[in-house]
Amino acid sequence: MLRAMRMATPASVRAPDDDGTVGDEETLVARARAGDRDAFGRLVETHLDRVWTLVWRVLRHHEDTEDVVQEVFFAAWQALPRFRGEARLSTWLQTIAVTRALNHRARGAERLRQASIPLDRLAGNGAPWRTDGAPGLAGPPAAEPADLHPAASPLRALEAGELRRRLALCLDKLPAAWRAILALRDGGDRPYEEIAAAVGLALGTVRSRLARARLALRDCVEGTS
Amino acid sequence: MSRDRWFNHPCEALSALVDGELPAGGQRAAVEAHLGGCPVCRVLKEDIELLGQVVAAETPPPMPADLAARIRGRIDESAAARRAGWWRMPWRVPMPAAAAAAVVVVALVWLVSFGSRPPDTPIPATEVASRTAPGTTDGRDATGGPDVAGGRDAAGVPRSSPPALAPAPARAQPPAPAPAPIVGSAAAAREKPEPKLARSTPAGDAAAGRSNQAPPVVHRDDGVRPTPAGAIAEHDETRLYKETAKDTIAVDTERDRTQVGFLEATARQEAPAKPTTKASNAPPAAAPGMPASAGARPVVTMSDARIAAPPLEAAPYMVRLLPDGSMSVRARDYQCVVPIAPDDARLLASIGDATTAGVAPRTRAPEAATTGATASAAMEEPLPVVPSPEARSAILRLVRERYRAIIEERCGPLPR
Fold it and tell me: Which of B200, B210, B238, B269 is the most exposed place for a label (fewest CB within 10 A)?
């Protein structure tokens, strides 16, 4: 099952110490807070893959993801003395990652381009399929509105590879803030409450925005407007 | 996205239902009941689930293999910079250490200033041309003072070619002719080595094809010195310097002594044991605390007299910055010339500039001009200027405190 492929959040990360003993994440955090860079390096190795995936799902750009991931861990190192341990380190890093990724995107022109395109035009209607101007990426063929054929989903008819390709293109078109919520929910299987804390929104706003993002993504993939 | 669908179907609740975030109760039951009779919502629910699976299965590109190392390196750099920052914090440096460092720096500057170019060492022959060049002004630029910019007055006119004097002052004299180019005079002196070769005549200048119009200002500095047109060759400059130096001291008339007061100081300095205006070529002894080379103080030339700064009246003294950066102190029958630090020379120069700023330079016309003598003696001595009380206090501190020991070592007890 694809959903089973989602990364599970480890409740506790256990990493071997320099002296061969086994210490849990709390021990590493405590050592890192005391200035132990080796301990923090262990934490980086533990959470790097998760942070990388989350940031990439928000930004969907390799080089930007590299920069932001470094920023995330550097900021975490600097802010570690203020980490009180009330939340798990993974949650704390996740919050930093989403914030940094969205700020990074906000600094670019991408946000302006995204904001200038109505969401309803994400698919078809002559709207540019990609905002980065990449050639040869025509929009998916327009299909009949799903509302008119409620019993048959065009998504089910798509071949798996084509579905992934369209989904990737449509995710590129989504606002980064929506992508962040999708990444946390569908990519990270995070509960709404945790998502709300990570993106700094109310729980109801997260629920509403997540639903809108999913519908927009579905319409985009189906090629309907 | 169809707005009707959003409002006609519980899309948000369906999304929450898929995520298991729809709390059990009335809303959840209502949504599940709606799903039973709404094929659109059933398809929508299936699509949301499918898209969620595809999104979750989407794999990002592989991260760089050295990303963790780069993060670690950045953190290490930050830690190193923070450690270095502690040392750079000024409040972490003990005050005694900072004071000691400041003293060392000041001492080095002093030594370098007097070591690289002691004020009492002979002026290189190559500088004679620039110092005696027409257009060169009061020579305060020799110390790098504020007048380095070319000795121009407030109107930007070189002081070496002052405008005609206004007749209003009591000492007003007929307009003095523009000073003749000294280099030209030097060239004439080279042709006929007379004792007064440093003084040129307009007629002589005219005969030599020279103009009374001052050529561009030649600054004395350690950089490239533009040589005025017709400048003599260096070996001639050397000879000229020697002749001029020898001749300069041979001031044998009362007029010269009164007009070029600092020459008397020079003569006195050169014969400290005999405080008279009798000149001699014997170099003065080095001042205490000064480099040994200070004893080889250069002779102040007549050309220097032309470009000297105005005397500063700080009663009971008349203090004057000489072109070579030394200080002349006069008080009634007491005269002395001592080398001073470049900073002090700049101070005197700045006081002179501030005092004479915006004021046409007052010069004492030579007696030769009033007696009908040739203009070859058209030496101009700036009249004394009265600085502000604050400046006077600064001058008195220089004379009575800072350089008193040197002055009295050279010239005897300083009059009070």
Answer: B238
